[in-house]
């Protein structure tokens, strides 16, 4: 039923009069679809919480329109929008029991008593809160409290969206995994539009159908986890997604070949010559680059990291450094000369930080 | 054997404090205890009197007992009245304090102003304020036809003392509550808006519970201070008219220094002290239990 449309939404916090606006959030167009799970991913201060608060109505955007289906809600107050939000720190009402906490949003909206009871029981079952329903909420542990906050966000069945603002920050690492899979299950069970803010790529990639990568108030790419990994639209996405991130090396390009200080890389597609003075880089993921004892491009090994399941090698190339995966049979030590091979089609070209698509022929 | 390290040298550091407390509190108090079990015929000759003073004091049918009981009741009523006024008023003021900008500082300074005035000066201000001939309050009230005379009419005297105390101390409760309110994270208010809570519900379910500890401290401070109030009423009404505003400490001073009735005054001091101690203990217990109470 509900989709949320961001129509040229942008936000600048009021600054000195006459000064050029400093955008906390640069103009963005996007449609959030009912039943999907989205993650807003980016480093602290990138504007993801601002965007979330614009959707929930805690912040009124300085530009653009916000549509719930076809209704313009840009200036509507939070209470009048059909939105639920879960915050970074657990918010519980000390005076109430767990059940009363869960029922609170429904009670305030005049939902009928039996319906409240049924819904509260349903949510309590989803979040394993049933045993503590009758307890006072104030005495519970932080993760139980955050479950109550999550429950209060999920309890209304008529909401357009449920927004999560880094909800697992205060949760014990061991419990994070459990709560995250619980959320995922809840999402499947309730068929809600969920938007999840996080700076943790694992959280974003495991939770979301689509991830919105943000930096400095701008949206760099919106895509599925696989798209972000395979075809990052911006060098920051390549660097931010993946562990370790993408390697970038300054290069010059001619047709199908890229040169990094004399070393030639096969791009697997042909590219038009970039404009003069543009910053040209090639990027490749350590996951698709292999270091062998010999063969391929000769590089100088600098460091080997054993991660248990796989080994990563840092090596010098063309005046810079890059990381690749060590082949299982390669016994390489720092100082050795190794051979680098990259799977075809996994060397990307970035001009001024933006990925350029080549013509495959 | 105990493995815990015991180091008796710690006592050395406590000794200076103990000595000071001994001479400033313990010795004078023992003198009072001494007076409370003796009687004198003058000439500094004292003789053992047992618990007679206490018996008289705690028996409301005797002169002194009746006097003490009525002063105690009067004082309790006063404390309860000012708490009932100052607590809601202080919280209301705190809720109205601006959230940001230069107004915050200005408001806080204004609120704190009465707290910075010496108590005798507060008394003098109100004593003059209440005068029927030159006092702004007294003259104005009589001019508009309200009979007001704080030196002859007990109601006027009580009203003056109560309003003076509210004026003097509501600011403290407001400041304490304001600090408590500031400590509530924004997320609570945002969550309440999203949950569709009414303003009253926000106050009842978020602000008031978060203020609980601060308010217990405020009640304790205000109760103890009002239970021992002396300076302001002694300047404004002197305990009058008649005995109308004679609170415990005023009465005690009258008996001890006015009538030099040392036995009764000493017994009264000790009972007064024990009452104060008991109330303190009750408050302390409530506070620690609030801290520990989890769940259920």
Automatic annotation (TrEMBL), chain A:
Name of a matching Pfam family = ABC_tran
Keyword Cell membrane included in the entry's annotation = yes
- Keyword set, alphabetical order: ATP-binding, Cell membrane, Membrane, Nucleotide-binding, Transport
InterPro entries (UniProt xref): AAA+_ATPase (IPR003593), ABC_transporter-like_ATP-bd (IPR003439), ABC_transpr_FbpC (IPR015853), ABC_transpr_MalK/UgpC-like (IPR047641), Mo/tungstate-bd_C_term_dom (IPR008995), NA-bd_OB-fold (IPR012340), OB_MalK-like (IPR040582), P-loop_NTPase (IPR027417)
Q: Cell inner membrane as a keyword?
A: no
> Could you tell me which SUPFAM superfamilies the record lists for this protein?
MOP-like, P-loop containing nucleoside triphosphate hydrolases
- Any one GO molecular-function label of the UniProt entry: ATP binding
* SMART domains recorded: AAA (SM00382)
Q: List, for all copies, the residue spans of the domain called ABC transporter.
A: 4-241
Record GO cellular component, one term: ATP-binding cassette (ABC) transporter complex, substrate-binding subunit-containing
Q: Which residues form the signal peptide?
A: none
Coiled-coil intervals in this record? Answer: none
Per the similarity annotation, which family is this?
Belongs to the ABC transporter superfamily.
Question: What name does the UniProt record give this protein?
Answer: ABC transporter ATP-binding protein
Organism ancestry? Bacteria, Pseudomonadati, Pseudomonadota, Alphaproteobacteria, Acetobacterales
